[in-house]
Amino acid sequence: xxxxxxxxxxxxxxxFAFAEDTLDTGDTAWMMVSTAFVLLMTPAGLALxxxxxxxxxxxxxxxxxxxxxxxxxxVVWVVAGYSxxxxxxxxxxLQNFFGGFGNVMLSGINWTDLSGTYPTYVFIAFQxxxxxxxxxxxxxxxxxRMKFSTWMVIVALWGLLVYAPITHMVWGGxxxxxxxxxxxxxxxxxxxxxxxxxxGLVLAILVGKRAGYPKVAMKPFxxxxxxxxxxxxxxxxxxxxxxxAFGANAIAxxxxxxxxxATAAAAVTWMLIEWFVFKKPTLLGIASGIIAGxxxxxxxxxxxxxxxxxxxxxxxxxxxxxxxxxxxxxLGYDDxxxxxxxxFLAGLWGxxxxxxxxxxxxxxxxxxxxxxxxxxxxxxxxxxxxxVVVGLWTLIGTVIVFFIAKAITGGARVDEETEEIxxxxxxxxxxxxxx
Length: 435
Fold this sequence. Notes:
By secondary structure, the protein is mainly alpha-helical. Helices cover 68% and strands 1% of the residues.
């Protein structure tokens, strides 16, 4: 059965005169390039960003968890995740949450099928990179103490039970719960960042703190690698946000500019507040501000003005800084690389800020109370509903997935000796750097 994304496409491209389901070479080229950009974000950008922040004895394991998550999650996406996210369920009730199994192994989708103005196969690949990076984000919370086998089982199950249904609810077209409510999420503030960040926190709490945390100093392997990872993530994010316009069009241009503005403003904000609070502007702080800004603008990129992007980036950076520096200390959880502090909190802010700051422009908005009646408070309440629904689904689903994976692999945590030696040599038999 053909995927149900045409409704969203119709909302996203109202000002362009393309006939529906007619291939446009410019849109096709842009979407293929955007897919490659987003792919780069995980096995290069996120992997380096995370590996640089962890201890040297776990750097290779960190890279392996991110890259392993990416490749496995993509396979799971093609096998059944895409069908659950963008397929159609026979039951109207189920269609609220679940797309069904009509497109398992991409059954019913031909290589000649189109999603608006470009091939459906390109859309599947593009969305698959989103599925893969989302679960990889969560790995940053459990670095240094989770079994690699447990992590792989979590990746497979989580992609089917948590990521795909949430994607369906937000982006699944007519009949999907949050899509029908008019929730606005341009490129994944709820679907990707809140989802992955909260999953990371849940896993971190369930697997327990690293040995010695927070009393033992856990110095990062290489801040330079982390900064390079942040730069690659920023580069790839132009495909992440710009590609979510689903064409080489003016909305993509808006998303590219707002992404750049919000990210730069967030990085400056983090640098300045760190300089003021700790008297030193660190490279890690600038890199963290970059990611906070990218995350915050993601749900709003195609909906806000340049001024709105500045507000989203600055406030998103302040909230993420508070999450990393203060909230984690107050609550005492061990989120190793601050997936929750940056991705969840900045994503939450961005999702809510979309309702507050989205332009009342009929050519930009695809649905919702703001588009239908100029009702901004109504739109904010829909955004609030979306973050609550996504948060609850992620919380419950991740707990279930964790305990299933733990049972399958005979425990989720490595033994004390492995944790002490480091997971690079003990688990993978390799070193991240041999001198």
